[in-house]
Design brief:
Blueprint lengths: L7 E5 L11 E8 L2 H13 L4 E4 L5 E3 L3 E8 L4 E3 L4 E5 L4 H10 L24 E2 L2 E2 L4 E8 L5 E5 H4 L16 E9 L11 H9 L7 H15 L7 E5 L5 E3 H10 L6 E2 L4 E3 L2 H7 L6 E2 L2 E3 L6 E4 L5 H19 L8 E3 L1
Parallel strand pairs: 2-5, 3-5, 4-20
Antiparallel strand pairs: 1-2, 6-7, 7-12, 8-9, 10-11, 10-12, 13-19, 14-16, 15-16, 17-18, 18-19
The protein binds flavin-adenine dinucleotide and uridine-diphosphate-2(N-acetylglucosaminyl) butyric acid (EPU).
Length: about 350
């Protein structure tokens, strides 16, 4: 073992994942500079250890212990490249960044308020909420390529963003460590109130010309009313992605379930809310031991105390089978499953 690196063995990850499941990493290191990252990667390569990059642990499910090196990203710092271009180190907290931008009159990410986790994980699934996705403000990112050891800049096109997707979940899965993200924000605010729950909340508050702070406050309020706070009850937000189905399939379902909501994707495809499907199938609030379905949002699986990762996974599998049987729709996890 390198004497310069502080590597922990059999490291308990239960406070490093928001589902709060118990899991141990055979090796764990916290890195706060790119050179520490390079050394950590070299250490893992020397020992032929698998590598897992960990941010806030808010989109990950440890089914088992992790046999390999967990690299916990604590890269910090923010740099203005211009009035509106901000380069942020990957270990910064996402929501703190949103609050900083709102406070400094920088528009663009206010709809993404209160999403847990790190800045570096935001591009992995192109985080999105309330009508906005990261790609709408994304300029570029820097990533350390594990095999070659080079630092590479990725433009927006190179990231291949999609709905809860990017190149880092596909071709480059586990192969690149995002070290910083650069966003292009705006001083001429063009607020996005297209999401129904958001426009309804603004109307309820009598706000007809919202500024970015109003948007951020309303999004926070909506989220707090239906999403569980991981500090109080373990969860990873939406467990599954909203499925995209054919218009034909949708029309069949709609004739049977007239209240099925939908969002257009293309002329031939629509997205339907997985939360609605799971709710309709009767899962809301149900439990299997300490693994459960949240009472206010059926798309969120929760840990009521001592559920193991495997128990959460078994519940997820049971839900998938039930949705397939009832609606002929295959749900796909949004959460990254480890082990
Ligand atoms: P982690 O869980 O630590 O990691 C997620 C994945 O990214 C893992 O595969 C990990 O290996 C990889 N990874 C992490 N950092 C890096 C890096 N620097 N380089 C390379 N790979 C990396 N998501 C949304 O999109 N919209 C929402 O509205 C939303 N709401 C949520 C609400 C709650 C209550 C919770 C708990 C989660 C929610 N999420 C939402 C999911 C989650 O917050 C986001 O996916 C977030 O970006 C994850 O960040 P993290 O740092 O916790 O990532
Ligand atoms: N619904 C139900 N029952 C439920 C849950 C939802 O009927 O138990 C219905 C709602 O009434 C609504 C529809 O389903 O008509 C959509 O619900 P909601 O607005 O809560 O959004 P969602 O589709 O469940 C998505 C994202 C969230 C994001 C919100 C707001 C995915 C997988 N999830 O949730 O992201 O915050 O929209 O934009 O796309 C996450 O990714 O972790 C996450 C929380």
């Amino acid at each position: 073992m390198s004497t310069e690196l502080s590597i922990h063995n059999d490291f308990d990850l239960s406070t490093f994942n928001t589902m709060g499941v118990s899991s141990k990493a055979s090796h764990f290191i916290e890195i706060s500079s790119v050179s520490e990252l390079q050394k950590a990667v070299r250490f893992a390569q020397g020992k032929k250890l698998d590598i897992l990059i960990l941010g806030g642990g808010s989109n990950i499910l440890f089914k088992n212990d992790f046999d390999g090196l967990v690299i916990y990203n604590a890269l910090k710092g923010r740099d203005f490249l211009s009035d509106t271009e901000l380069k942020i180190a990957a270990g910064e907290n996402w929501h703190e960044l949103v609050l900083f931008c709102v406070e400094h009159g920088l528009g663009g990410i206010e709809n993404l308020s209160l999403i847990p986790g790190s800045v570096g994980a935001a591009p992995i699934q192109n985080i999105g909420a309330y009508g906005v996705e990261l790609e709408n403000v994304f300029l570029s990112l820097e990533a350390f390529i594990i095999d070659s050891g080079e630092l590479k800049t990725f433009t927006k096109d190179e990231c291949k963003f999609g709905y809860r997707e990017s190149i880092f979940k596909k071709e480059l899965k586990g192969k690149a460590v995002i070290t910083s993200v650069t966003l292009r924000l705006s001083k001429d605010h063009n607020v996005n109130t297209s999401y129904k729950a958001l426009s309804e909340k603004l109307a309820e508050k009598g706000i007809s010309e919202p500024d970015i702070k109003d948007i951020s406050d309303c999004v926070i309020e909506i989220r707090q009313s239906k999403l569980p706070d991981p500090k109080q009850i373990g969860n990873t937000g939406s467990f599954f992605k909203n499925p995209v189905i054919s218009v034909q399939h949708f029309n069949q379902l709609k004739s049977e379930y007239p209240d099925l909501p939908s969002y257009p994707v293309t002329e031939r495809q629509v997205k339907v809310p997985a939360g609605w499907l799971i709710d309709k199938a009767g899962w809301k609030g149900r439990k299997r031991g300490d693994a459960g379905v949240h009472t206010k949002q059926a798309l969120v699986l929760v840990n009521h105390g001592n559920a193991s990762g495997e128990e959460i996974w078994n519940l997820a599998t049971e839900i998938c089978l039930s949705i397939k049987e009832k609606f002929n729709i295959s749900l796909v996890p949004e959460v990254n499953i480890i082990g």
